[in-house]
Design a protein that fits this description.
By secondary structure, the chain is an alpha/beta fold. It contains 27 helices and 25 strands.
């Protein structure tokens, strides 16, 4: 593969491609990328290349040893955010997770977007109902803690975000960015408001306060569909613009002006991201963005915050919004062993992963699977986690690199190049600002000695199913256990490794499971149909394609297996390689709601109970002796997993500490020289970059760095190692509603190195 170009005929991207996309061939052709499995010699720590059968035999032996001695509860799993970019992540990973029969599940969500899931789950009844800004029709965009000019959208799929921001201004609209740093996005906006890290909830509540005090609340088309709005306005009473000014750093009159502008705009959207979720009040801040969109009549309204609709998505509830038809949503079905932190969306906070491994006692994690993740760099208190990984009895990594995490794995299973498998956006497509369906068939032929990720996960699932006991109905982590694979007719080899017939049968069992769910789901276009009849019509040359065909045909725009002629199916997308444009987003409330009341429950009790914490910081002034650390992202980096691409690594050093000139003078540090940054839990040395793009009192360091450790095989990354900012994060500091680690707003001290 030599080049990657944007598709000018694609209805959503319109040919836009970012530097990360343009460097895709280098990622595919990377000589450091693993092509064959590795097994580690525990005596020497060295990894050696083995056959696939030998690798899976090692997986079975290691997992059997741990589960046989301690049961499946001591097995953990961590999945990273690259899973959102693969078909296997959406189609096959869930079955593998269930097959492990463990509550020790972790993911990158609790160092990222989990607070928004919690807010949406409590307000709308389902954590996946996340609204996105209708960028192409809005006239006023208020963004907090987001830098989409670099990320190209996050929980909002919008290629060429800078172009879309420019279009808002060109049609007479306004873009306001609230961020402690003058980001690239802020330079493209009409107005940039610096705010003290972690104080966004106070400021948003002050805007609610102004709306209430000045009679600016208007529910619009949602009138009659919202409960709890009056109580929210009452709760906002103490949070006046004057009361929050000192803590936020935004003048009271500016807060009032923004509130009035937001209320007066015919079409407006309030959008928050990483800077608002990875903080102490992440869930409350996310909730307040929903509140403001509702109170100004901009939720589920063209030009406001609307709900994406992937072509593969399930139908909305029928009858729409009928009270009592939703179960609602909550957390805490089980708790972590050491700190008793509650489960959220079937997983525990990743900030607890190290202690769940290294704290002695019954039930401590003894085995770990990682799938497309690098928690040794991306999660809090990295030093402790790195040490904890060496204490595991067994570890498996599904990863194309020997990185800072997988270097500890007993078995490394590298998926084949992504250009050799098809691609459809399940996660990102459902969060797109316009409904588009696109399937990209494999670009390159299969590697005869490689293995696709869906086949790897299928084998791991079959191995886990054979070793775990599904007979305990009291285990809430097994309440949704799949029967996938139970009807497989293939035989396992003598060493317990599933043969190809068993894998093929497993794939087909996933197809059958998907059909069974579809025919039994209220609102489904194939409700009550015969599974065997539908199964005979499923199309596709591979398991991912067959599963996609089922999802498309039973989704919002599907052909319902012939019941809706002209509807979508796999063959439709294959015949339209540039994608199918299904139009702009449309209002979906109340049909999509899953709350018990059938309304938008704007004032959920868990949030109300947590407001006491927020009131304690009302009127607080920041300590003048401390600096506050925040993270940052670059256009040429994507967390930790593209740092081995030469095109992304070239140029100046991007892993630097941004320090405001006034703070540099006060701390005695100089531009281009090393400084020591110390937090409550760790210390590191990094090069200083003096810049007024961060507000005074704030320092800024990118995440995802810290390469070059012994045992890794990433030569480009090792040549540009940077430092790991998570050495400074405190795993004990979490947003209690979501379990999300506090990665922004960390008190630190900066001194000259040495």
């Amino acid at each position: 593969m030599r080049t990657a170009r944007g598709d000018a005929q694609h209805p959503l991207s319109r040919g836009f491609i970012c530097p990360k996309g343009a460097s895709f061939p280098q990622l595919v052709n990377d000589p450091d990328r693993l092509r064959r499995p590795l097994v580690r010699d525990r005596a020497t720590g060295e990894h050696r290349e083995v056959s696939w059968d030998e690798a899976f035999a090692a997986v079975r032996a290691g997992l059997s040893r741990v589960v046989g001695a301690h049961g499946p509860a001591v097995v953990g799993l961590y999945s990273g955010n690259p899973n959102a970019h693969t078909m296997a992540g959406g189609q096959h990973l869930p079955a593998f997770v269930r097959s492990l029969r463990t509550r020790g599940r972790f993911s990158a969500s609790t160092v990222d977007q989990m607070p928004m899931h919690v807010a949406c789950g409590l307000v709308f009844g389902h954590p996946g109902l996340i609204p996105v800004p209708d960028l192409d029709r809005t006239g006023y965009l208020l963004m907090l803690g987001a830098n989409p000019a670099v990320s190209n959208g996050s929980l909002c799929t919008a290629p060429d975000f800078p172009g879309r921001l420019a279009a808002i201004r060109e049609r007479g609209g306004k873009v306001v960015v609230v961020d402690p740093r003058r980001t690239r996005t802020a330079t493209l906006a009409d107005e940039h408001l610096p705010i003290r890290p972690g104080s966004d909830a106070l400021w948003l509540f002050a805007i609610v306060n102004v709306l209430a005090a000045e009679g600016l609340v208007k529910l619009g088309r949602l009138a009659g569909q919202v409960t709890g709005a009056e109580r929210v306005l009452e709760l906002a009473a103490p949070f006046t613009p004057e009361a929050v000014e000192a803590a936020c750093g935004i003048p009271a009159e500016t807060t009032r002006r923004i509130a009035r502008e937001l209320a007066a705009a015919p079409r407006a959207a309030v959008y928050g991201r990483m800077g608002t979720t990875t903080v102490e009040f992440g869930a409350t801040t996310s909730w307040l963005t929903l509140v403001l969109n509702v109170l100004t009549g901009n939720l589920d309204s063209p030009g406001g915050m609307m709900f994406g609709r992937g072509a593969h998505g399930r139908a909305d509830r029928v009858p729409p919004g009928q009270p009592g038809t939703g179960r609602g949503w909550g957390t805490g079905r089980w708790h972590s062993r050491v700190r008793r932190l509650p489960e959220v969306m079937g997983e525990l906070p990743v900030a607890t992963l190290a202690e769940e491994i290294d704290t002695p006692g019954e039930g401590r994690l003894r085995a770990l699977f990682t799938v497309a993740g690098n928690p040794a760099l991306s999660t809090p208190d990295s030093g402790r986690l790195a040490a904890a990984l060496t204490q595991l009895d067994f570890m498996v990594s599904v990863d194309p690199y020997l990185n800072e995490t997988s270097r500890n794995a007993d078995v490394v299973l590298p998926p084949t190049d992504s250009a050799r498998v098809g691609h459809y956006d399940f996660s990102l497509g459902a969060l797109a600002v316009r409904t588009v369906a696109t399937y990209s068939p494999p670009v390159l032929p299969p590697d005869p000695t490689g293995m696709a990720e869906h086949d790897i996960l299928a084998r791991l699932t079959l191995i886990a199913q054979a070793l775990t006991d599904p007979s305990d109905p009291s285990d809430p982590s097994a309440s949704t256990a799949s029967t996938a694979g139970s009807g497989g007719s293939g035989e396992a080899a003598a060493d317990g490794v599933p043969d190809q017939a068993a894998v093929d049968a497993f794939h087909e069992s996933l197809v059958l499971d998907a059909l069974r769910r579809a025919v039994g789901e209220r609102g489904s276009p194939v409700l009550g149909r015969d599974v065997a009849e539908l199964h005979a019509q499923v199309d596709g040359a591979s398991a991912p394609e067959r599963l996609l065909d089922v999802a498309l045909r039973t989704g919002h725009f599907g052909d319902a297996f012939g019941a809706r002629p002209g509807g979508l199916r796999l063959s439709t997308l294959l015949a339209n390689p540039h994608g199918v444009d299904l139009g702009p987003l449309e209002p979906r409330v109340p049909a999509l709601l899953r709350t018990p009341s059938g309304t938008i429950e704007l004032c959920p009790e868990p949030v109300v109970a947590d407001l006491d914490r927020l009131r304690t910081v009302l009127g607080a002034r920041p300590a003048t002796s401390e600096l506050t650390l925040i993270g940052r992202r670059h256009l040429r980096t994507n967390n930790s997993w593209m740092h081995n691409v030469p095109a992304m690594a070239k140029g100046r050093n991007r892993c630097t500490l941004l320090v405001h000139p006034r703070d540099a003078d006060r701390s005695g540090v100089r531009d281009g020289e090393p400084a020591r940054v110390t937090s409550a839990v760790g210390s590191l040395e990094v090069t200083v970059q003096v810049s007024d793009e961060v507000m005074a009192g704030v320092v800024c360091l990118p995440h995802g760095w810290g390469h070059g450790l012994a045992g890794t095989r990433m030569s480009v990354a090792a040549a540009h190692p940077g430092v790991n900012t998570n050495v400074l994060t405190d795993a004990s500091r979490l947003d209690p509603l979501s379990g999300t680690a506090v990665l922004n707003g960390i008190p630190v001290r900066v001194t000259p190195a040495g």
